[in-house]
Amino acid sequence: MFRLALIGLFCANCLLSSEAFAQAKKGDKKFAVLDIKQVDEDFQYQGEYYGRIGVDCSWCGECALGLQVVARGDGKFIASLYNGGLPGNGWDRSDRQELTGTRDGIVLTLTNEEFRVQVMPGGIAEVRDLHGHLLGQLNKYQRSSITLGAKPPQGATVLFDGSSVDHFKNGKITEEGLLKEGTELKDTYRSFRMHVEFRLPYMPYATGQARSNSGLYLQSRYEVQVLDSFGLEGVENECGGLYKQKRADVNMCFPPLSWQTYDIAFVAPKFDADGKKIKNAFITVLHNGVPIHQDYSIVAKTGGGKQEGPELFPIKLQDHSNPVRFRNIWIVDLSDQPDPTYCHPCQSLLCDRSDN
User: What's the rounded Cα separation, in Å, for the pair 79 and 70?
Assistant: First the structure.
């Protein structure tokens, strides 16, 4: 499902504290980094690790293990261990193990009641038991979605390719040719397929809803949350969730400053002549190429969305005061076509249903 790249030594320029970090107010939850050249020393430790640990592992015996490390600012970290591999890549869906720790010089030490993990520069994490016995070594990887860079199919409307914001109301482009949050489409769509790529800023001091928050509001009613939920449980108000209504089936959020993808199939609700809803909206979402909602029946509007009704409203890219960036956005209007759905067994495509 992913392109995998083994991480070697981190670039030297990125290991230094940037001037921006030096001038930032310590613990400022609104402080956001968009350029990898301006990250702090903690950034190189954050990310995903994978490997095998030996038979001395009391938790799972000899097995593959995934690790997600999350920077919290000023050398503080949290992490999650996954039996079998990483979410979407081998994790067996058993309970993840949470760890906490701090960086002392160049070594980050993470612990819980069973493990001690030492993460070192160069992308190596050694897993030990609490007696200090080495159980195995994990290597750092950079995953990328199989749908990253997906080209629009025949009949699609390219909404944003970096050249203009003609399809957006009050849309703004950065110097990099990326679309800023806080805009909406000029046209409206009833049912559709949609591809969106987004990048979360690095906000190590922020937590919860203050950490790289945005969202896709379909019909201005139903929010697919955009948030830096990397390494967390993945609940209803975190990345990929249908805001406060349904959590993602698996938390597929990548680390901040990684490009991520949403591939969405949306079937509009149906109403009778009196405006009474007679059929719920349905949605399928792939996050970074992995299904996180499959033909889910949306029971009502989410969060601050507009009330349900037959009137159409535009798709919004929410402004939550965090600099989330978007690119490669296209849509296929299926309003007059059979309902779109997730297509088994390909597990990477959205297609049209023939039995509407």
Answer: 6
Answer whether 219's CB lies under 8 Å from 275's CB.
Answer: no
| Count of C-beta atoms within a 10 Å radius of residue 239 | 29
| Phi–psi pair at 208, nearest 5 degrees | 55, -135
pLDDT digits (tens, 9 = 90+) for 294-334: 999 999 999 999 999 999 999 999 999 999 999 999 999 99
Report d(CA 344, CA 98) in Å as an integer.
34
Coil/strand/helix, residue 165: coil
Rounded to whole angstroms, the Cα distance separating 342 from 352 reads: 8
Order of all β-strands in the sheet with 222-226: 168-169, 183-185, 316-317, 214-218, 222-226
- Tally of domains within the chain: 2
Residue 220 DSSP label: T
- In the numeric block, the tokens 């990477």 are attached to 348
Residue 27 DSSP one-character state: T
Shared domain check, 12 and 99: yes
> H or E segment at 82?
strand 76-83
CATH code at 257? Answer: 2.60.120.560
Among 106, 125, 144, the domain boundary falls at: 144
Higher pLDDT, 105 or 17: 105
Query: Measured in whole angstroms, how far is the alpha carbon of residue 91 from the centre of its chain?
Result: 17
Q: Helix, strand or coil for residue 151?
A: coil
- Which residue bears the tokens 């309003």? 335
Residue 34 — pLDDT band, cuts 50, 70, 90?
very high
From the centroid of its chain, how far is CA 20? Answer: 25
CA–CA distance, 3 with 205 (Å, rounded to integer):
29
Domain extent for 254: 147-352
What stretches of 214-262 show up as alpha helix (H) in DSSP? none
Task: Specify whether the CB–CB gap between 113 and 97 falls below 8 A.
Answer: no
Question: For the domain that residue 87 is a member of, what is the CATH number?
Answer: 2.40.128
